[in-house]
Amino acid sequence: MEKVSTRTKELASTLLEIGALLMSSGASTGRIRVTISRIAEALGYNSELLVTHRALMLTLVEEESQYFFSSLKRTSPHGVNFKVVSGISRMSWRVVEEGWDIPKINEEIERLRSLPHYPRLVILLLVSLAGASFCRLFGGEATEMGVAFVATFAGLFVRQESAKRSFNGYMCVFFASLTASLISGASVKWGLGGNPELAFATSVLFLIPGVPLINSFTDLIDGNIMNGLVRGANGMIISFAIALGMLGAMIIYNI
């Protein structure tokens, strides 16, 4: 029984690590439950998982001996990393099809965790290009696109720097929105380009909380009401922080 107990504890720790990694990478509640259940069943366990916005609680039951073990793990602040989400999903199927053991799973988790991120400059340039592209999509010309590019670049840079200095996440969004709006709002104040309002409106689109709002809707549809409401509230607060930043620029420029 002691051997089973040790294995159960190791698996519970691994599954909670997987769940926390999925949660912090932007996975929906349903995906987390399905992935954890798939891996647990492949290793001969039944699992019950409670998912909240800040913590995971897991109970494992060994199918043969009915030995059970419960454990709790807090999750880190949420972000978006679809590379990790898709990698864990593929890993869970390989556990089923190839019979991976716990050390092999832990090895794959560490590999996924250590995957390199895109260089910071590449992220800044590509997100800024996306902002300029949105401006063009709404009818902006070269001048408005250039303003949107610079405003998005500066806003994202400020958000990254604020996050590095451990500011509150909503304050990071506010600082980024205010910075982008101050730059794009200057073009409205001084009439740069034919439609400077387009640059002002699209320079903050990189801050829109798409993943939290989509996950909120998905959780509500799946019946995970509490998580759906929490994620929806999180998305609304982020949207409010964006609006406050734009409002600050409008008050400063009186536009």
UniProtKB/TrEMBL annotation:
Keyword Transmembrane listed: yes
Transmembrane segments: 121-139, 145-160, 172-192, 198-221, 233-253
Domain of life: Bacteria
Subcellular localization, as worded in the UniProt entry: Cell membrane
GO BP, one annotated term: succinate transport
Molecular-function annotations in GO: transmembrane transporter activity
Family: Belongs to the ThrE exporter (TC 2.A.79) family.
Name assigned to this protein: Uncharacterized membrane protein YjjP (DUF1212 family)
Source organism phylogeny: Bacteria, Pseudomonadati, Bacteroidota, Bacteroidia, Marinilabiliales
